[in-house]
Specification:
The chain has five helices and two strands, in the order ββααααα. The chain has about 100 residues and is mainly alpha-helical.
């Protein structure tokens, strides 16, 4: 299993760079993943979505797809795509330190 060093911590990741152990996540790890994905700074709106992803994963074992993410977070679909231009559910999950949601390619 690949290991990356993010925010001074070794974390286990899969072949696509998603954390394989959500308990290794920290806000510092999230910020480094975001920068690597082209997001220079996580705003309050980013953090809102990231926290929703983590909560949904804790409750259901997977992150929500884009449409559900919009409803649950209260962030509209268009804004989700502005915040996470490479695919909101996939990018937000990666930054949130959870596995890629089912159905994401």
């Amino acid at each position: 299993m690949p290991v990356m060093t993010l925010a001074g911590t070794d974390v286990d990741v899969d072949a696509e760079g998603f954390l394989t152990d959500a308990s290794q996540w920290t806000e510092g790890v999230a910020a480094e993943i975001a920068r690597a994905e082209g997001i220079d700074e996580l705003t309050d709106r980013h953090w809102l979505v990231v926290q929703v992803m983590r909560r949904e994963f804790a409750d259901k074992g997977t992150g929500p797809a884009v449409r559900a993410l919009g409803k649950i977070s209260g962030v509209g679909i268009a804004e989700l795509y502005q915040l996470f231009p490479k695919g909101p559910a996939k990018m937000a999950a990666k930054i949130a330190g959870i596995p890629k949601p089912r159905g994401c390619i």
